[in-house]
Amino acid sequence: QVTSFQGVAVRSLSTSSPHDHPEHGRLVYKGNLAKTVLGVKFFSYSTSIFNLFMMPYIMLKSGIGVESLLVQAAFYGLIGIFTFVTPVTLHILTKGYVIRLYYKDEVDTYTAITYNAILAEKVTVFHQKDVKIPDITKMFTTFYAKTKSMLVNPTLFPNPQDYNHLMGYDKSSFLKFEDLEE
Question: Keywords, A to Z (predicted)?
Answer without folding.
Answer: Membrane, Transmembrane, Transmembrane helix
